[in-house]
Amino acid sequence: MVSKKKYIYTIDDDCFVAKDPTGKDINALQQHIHNLLSPSTPFFFNTLYDPYREGADFVRGYPFSMREGVPTAISHGLWLNIPDYDAPTQLVKPRERNTRYVDAVMTIPKGTIFPMCGMNLGFDRELIGPAMYFGLMGDGQPIGRYDDMWAGWCAKVICDHLSLGVKTGLPYIWHSKASNPFVNLKKEYKGIYWQEEIIPFFQKVAFSKESTTVQKCYIELSKMVKEKLSPVDPYFQKLADAMVTWIEAWEELNSPAKSAPVANADPKKK
C-alpha cells in the first residue's frame, strides 16, 4: 500500500531461485516484468498460449480486431519442488514434488476465477494495486491461508470488468519446504467449506457502469460481499467493512501530493 513503485513482487521466505531445464538460474523478476509489459488476451484464447513471446504468434482464426490485447495487471508465477497444495491434499500426497517445468505463459480467460498464490507474484500497482488487499485473516480470525486467494478473486473480477489481463505460468521459483499440514488444516477448514459459496458468488459478480476505477469496483464489491456472503458467516460482514477501510487508507496514502507552498522571497536585497 505504501510503496510508490509501479511493479510489486511478492515472494515467500522459503522460496529461492530455481533453475530451468538447462541448469540456468531463472530470473523470476525479469520474467514477471516481461509478462506485465506485454499485453494479455482474455477475450479469445490463443492455442499457442502467449502470442507475444518470442517464437509464438496468433494462430489461424484469431480475430485481427483482438490482436492488440489489453494491459496486463497481474503476473502469476509457479513453483518447482513443493506444490502449493491445501492441507487435505498435503496429507494425501506428503511426498509429492513438482518437477515439471512447463515453458509457457498464458492469459487466464475473462470470466474464469483462479486460485492466486502470493509466493511468486508480480503486479502492476498502478493498474490493480487497490484490489490487492490480502483479506482480514490470521490470528483472531476464523480463517487463514486464504488471504492471497481472496485478493486474487477480487482482483480477477475487477480485471475482467475493467478489461485488464492476468497471466499465469512462467516464472518458476524453488519452494523449499512444505508447511505443516495439520496446522494448515486448522487454518483452512472453514475456508474449504466456505469457498463452495464464495466461488459461485464471484462467478456471478457484475459491476455497475459507474464502477470505472479499481477503487470504485472494490467499494461496490464490498457491498456485495456484505449482502451475499454475510449469511454464510458474520465474518464476511467484518471483512466487507475491512475492504472499505482498506480503500480509505489507500486513497489517503496515495492521494496526489499537494503542492508545497512557495517560500516568500526575502524582500531585502543583499
From TrEMBL:
One of its GO terms (molecular function) is UDP-arabinopyranose mutase activity. GO terms for cellular component: cytosol; Golgi apparatus; plant-type cell wall. Keywords: Cell wall biogenesis/degradation, Golgi apparatus. Its main location: Golgi. InterPro entries: RGP_fam. GO terms for biological process: cell wall organization; plant-type cell wall organization or biogenesis; UDP-L-arabinose metabolic process. Pfam families: RGP. The keyword Cell wall biogenesis/degradation applies. It comes from the Eukaryota. It is found in: Golgi apparatus. Belongs to the RGP family. This is UDP-arabinopyranose mutase. It comes from Fraxinus pennsylvanica. The lineage of its organism: Eukaryota, Viridiplantae, Streptophyta, Embryophyta, Tracheophyta.
